[in-house]
Amino acid sequence: MTDSIAEIRQPNALKANAIGFIDALVIGLNSTSPAYSLAASIGPIVTLVGIYAPGVILASFVPMLLIASAFFYLNRVDQDCGTTFSWVTRAMGPWVGWLGGWAIAMTGVLVIGSLADVAVSFGLLAIGLDSWAENDLVRQALAVLIILAMTAVCVIGTEASAKLQNILILAQVILLLTFAAVALYRVYTGTSTLSAARPSFEWLNPLGAGGAALTGGLLLGIFIYWGWESAVNLTEEVEDPASAPGKAGIWSTVALLTTYLSVGFAVVAYAGTSFLAENSEEEEFIFALLASEVMGSWDWVVLLAVSTSALASTQTTIIPASRTVLSMARRHALPRQFSHIHPRFRTPNVSTWWVAGVAIAWYVAVNQISTNALFDSLTALSLLIAFYYALTGIACAVYYRRHLTESSRNFLFIGVGPVAGSALLTWLLMESIIDMSDPKNSYSGVSWFGLGPPLVIGIGITVTGLAVMAVCRLMSGTFWRERPGLADPSLVHGKEL
């Protein structure tokens, strides 16, 4: 197996040892866009579960940690930048593996434009250019420029990307913690301008709001953790590729949990459930409303935090999509042109620019329909996320199946844990499909073909993927002749599990 992998990588190798563990950890953190993700979700979560929002955030962490374990162990035996695509192909065959890779690539296409839009909007609000932020043409033009600039950074090199990400995560964390500290200070000193409530450990109980509300909250909670695996997509470019990327993925989820709980407690305590529920439809702009309440004339701190978060994620979201396309092309699952590596920078320039180009086209096209349609396209993300995460968890147990009973650690962390995470995500996927089938549950509230727009978008992406897969099968049969296998015993036992 190792020989075949080497043959694939040599002609199209990425730059090895370009970044270290900390750099990978930072990229994993920034890929989730913590400030933006929390701002976009805290209002709707509070609407569903009230003061138990921190508990839902904590419960949503569980399947992410279980799937992170799958990423860690699969990366130990196959350091391929295509992650889910490569692992599922080796464990379950090329057809399922191809769909997993397609899902990852399409998540980037759906979300990159929206992230750039948020980065521009909040950046303009932070410097007082409110009229520019409200001008659709200006905002969209600047968003496209942001995507192009971030794509150029990705092409120039992984080191450049990592340096920029280190600066952005430092700024983002400082700004977020400043906001949380000021909010909690005003809660305990009785100077909150809203219906404040002192934090309680009871808020960590996710079952407090009931079953139906918990389901909806978990669906939103899964979204805020998505993206941490970008660190693993850099496995071929990280020092100690067999373990560092997987560890970075796991620790990024833990760091996210800490950040989300801190800010979540502060927001719920300061604003109270009534304010957050009343303004839940503001989506990510809930932080813009809270900024002036908490920080006064220093409201630009919060606005800049969200802008920085979205800007960082605009860049890092390109990484898993472009690396997955590269991996698929190297295996002849996509046209070979996508496997081209820049001769100087040793980055996948063709796949990176293609991902950016399609993302820009999607962003501009959907905006012509309506802003609500753009939010509906983001809602469709939950389908793709749950699908490829669940596939990864199952692939881990299948690929390691002959080693699961060798120790209790293997059985729990390679078998039971990832499968349990996959089962929960599959359940959430089915709940999402049922929920999205009703047009009333969509952001726009309109009907497309009798269904909610997010579900139609999800079905459209799936059908398009099947069509592209059929064309690729006709163009080249090499990849499609691969057969499922097992984890190489020499790799499993040659590295400490």
SSE layout:
Elements: H1 2-9, H2 21-31, H3 34-49, H4 53-77, H5 84-92, H6 94-126, H7 130-134, H8 136-156, H9 158-188, H10 211-225, H11 230-233, H12 244-278, H13 286-295, H14 300-316, H15 318-330, H16 349-369, H17 371-379, H18 381-399, H19 408-436, H20 453-475, H21 489-494
Estimated radius of gyration: 22 Å
**Tally of strands:** 0
The overall pLDDT, averaged over residues, is 83
Helicity, in percent? over 70%
Summarize this structure as a short list of keywords or feature phrases.
497 residues, mainly alpha, Amino acid/polyamine transporter I, 72% helix, disordered N terminus
At a glance:
The protein is mainly α and 497 residues long. It contains 21 helices and no strands.
Polypeptide structure, described:
- This protein has 497 residues and is mostly helical.
- It is globular.
- It has 21 helices and no strands.
